[in-house]
Fold this sequence. Notes:
9 helices, 2 domains
Amino acid sequence: MTVEKTRVLLVSGLSGAGKSSALKILEDLGYEAVDNLPLSLLSGLAAGVAPEASDDGARSALAVGIDTRTRDFEPARFAQSLDLLRKTPELDVRFLFLDCDDEVLKSRFLTTRRRHPLATDRPVADGIRHERGLMSSLKARADVLIDTSEITLPDLRHVLTGHFARDRAPGLAVTVTSFSYGRGVPRDADLVFDVRFLDNPFYLPELKPLTGEADAVAAHIVKDRRWAPFFAKLTDFLVFLLPSYAEEGKSYLTIAVGCTGGRHRSVFTAGQIARRLQEVGYRVNLRHRDIGGVGS
Length: 296
């Protein structure tokens, strides 16, 4: 008989990238969450997690936050502890690393007026630079890497649920997001598609103030002779490709669709992709990163 393992999720990353928020979300998902546990206590805590299923039928799960603020933290020692836990037959150990753009991190520290833990008497940028170098070897070992530079707290909750929900249905969870090339490609995108070749509603005065969610904009885009064959080939490709990701063990995939301003063509196309993937059975989260901007 196959015995289900107890899940242990180690959560680390750069200061300010959202570790505390992630642990709160994981706690809401039913994990026992512990932050800044000394590395010397990690193996004992993991071994003490009860293997029995809880009242809701899900197996016990532990989420442990460890970063540069942790007493006795050293990257090499963290890696050694990770390896030892992964050799424990009763445990299903995964490592989540939260990353973020340096300028966004700097803005978060300045906004909250917090000092960086590695630069209490120096500029925040010095601490970010030092910590990024210190954590680079651990980032490379992560099972799941989430860049929080551009995602909201609800988006982070959806991503963590897709990866780590204790009762998560098997299969691939998908996020489809629209974006503006003017603001850059989403950092967490796995697949990126450019729809700037489609006829642009932005240049029609009656459509310019609308978005790709409006019927009038949708009607304009689908009149483009290239739309129907493009969309058919693209969705056929995705329906063919996505099962291969699932077979390789990937639990979460982000598809990004971009246009000039992120309001018209990309919004409409992302919505249609999400609908098509839902029709064939995927769990899909749709978001529009730049829908409030100017352009198309």
